[in-house]
Amino acid sequence: MSITSDEVNYLVFRYLQESGFQHAAFTFGFESMVHRAEINGNDVPPGALVSFIQKGLQYVELEANLNAEGKHESGENTPSDFTLLQPEDLLTKDVGELRRTIQKKKEQRERSQRQRDRDRGDGGGDRQGDKPPKSKKSKTAQASKERDEKKKSSSGPSPMDTDAGDAGAEAVKTEPGKEGSAAEEKEKLIAEDEVRSLRGHTSEVFIIQWSPKNSLLASGSGDSTARIWDVAGGGEPICLSHVTAGGPAASKEGESPAPADQGNAAGGASKSRDRDVTTLDWSSDGKYLATGSYDGQARVWDASGNLVKTLNGHKGPIFSLKWNEEGKYLLSGSVDKTAIVWDVGLGKDKDAETSDGGGNKPSGSDAGASRGSILQQYSLHNAPTLDVDWRTNDSFATCSTDTQIYVCKIGATLPVKTFSAHTDEVNAISWDSAGTYLASCSDDCTAKVWTLSEDKPLHSFSDHSREIYMIRWSPKKQGGPLLLASASFDATVRLWEMEKGTCLYQLSRHEDPVYSVAFSPCGDFLATGSFDKNLHIWSVKTGKHLKTHKGESGIFEVCWNKDGNQVAACYSNSTINIVDFRK
Asked: Which site from 94, 291, 320, 377 is most exposed, i.e. has the minimal number of CB atoms within 10 Å?
């Protein structure tokens, strides 16, 4: 098969016409005599030249990933090790150079993975089962092993002297009074009578979230259950089983669970990790809880524990799940590389959705739960989707291990904006409360802030020395500056001021990776949780360390209740602690 120069000239001519370069098209067509090409223009689809070039680049990319025998360099005929290349590399390098580039990227990935394995205490061994390398919120169950035997030889990272993120940055203020007296440090310890432990899960608790309307706390675990705890009222939690034998079921702790759950009660030896609850989110009115798990299903429960919706559409684990503000749509992101907007349809014929034909609520099965419908599925990323976040009731952003961030709108098939400045996996994204700024954090050790009016980031914060796992915006505060908190594997948390683009404080009391950070509802306090087992509470105004509670194992998540007087933390040893915090 070959293509003639006349045919190439015709494709260029059509490209110039389609792009609006009418004068250039006329001149080029006249000089190249495109009329000689015996081509029926009606048979050539729009964008043909660009399409051919893109397919050619994909062919070169595929060729570079294969060896002389036509097999993947790894020896496996699987897409898991396929290395994506940048267009500038494909256009400027030959196949040999591209293969050397791929080899360097592969070695870099392996070094990064070995470092992450050491941090988790894996010793660099293989991952469990066939799970993806990373999960939003949990970083998968691999990180749950205790790391006491691998304490760092130093007491923590050296404080940074200046902000290297943006030009003209001011000096960074490290946490004041860090070298306090022994008496002062002891006074900061939270007394045990101010801590309440919630026990019931039989595996790591990856995620927790308070209801925005009351004292209910939801938790998701590797034991294939979510639980709803009435912290104020006490009593046994409602157990939301995600094991499908007999159907998902809700039960009070102490009642007989579904047969497939009995192995968990006996110690979990027979439990499959395919039902790990990796993400959850309360609706803004506090009436419904959505959960996502490794089985690829999203489920919607009411606050009493009734399963009212099951959402089937993803072909891989769900890493992120968010309600829009009005509670009409649910957004999910998955390892299958897609994001789905679900029309949940709550409030419509609710009795029919949550009852059988006689009006009785189902017990021990999902027979009364209706199926949510897919409003729109977005297949934009070419790698797992790690996080999603709504901007408005009909627009949102997604991020992925492919380094890309897309801003999408319901009804549009293409993204309305693409952000491409990160050079490694993008772990989390978050819009500020006004929907003006989008923050992102990545394994490239940077946090970035974007606006829809610019293609390049407004701020790029590069002071962290390790991967950044979580970011959080400060709540809207009258007259106060907008702040962004970033939590990193370098064991530090940083507070960034948006208007100046500078680091306000570096909080450096943790000794191990920091997985979670949360502002109090009033915005005056910050809670941080790390795998060093410590929950710290800080003053946002001064950066001063205020309180500490040391748990029994690594912390995955911290969050405040709606009143700002209690902080919840979930741990890798299956417990949840509620810390009483009075200002």
From this structure: 94
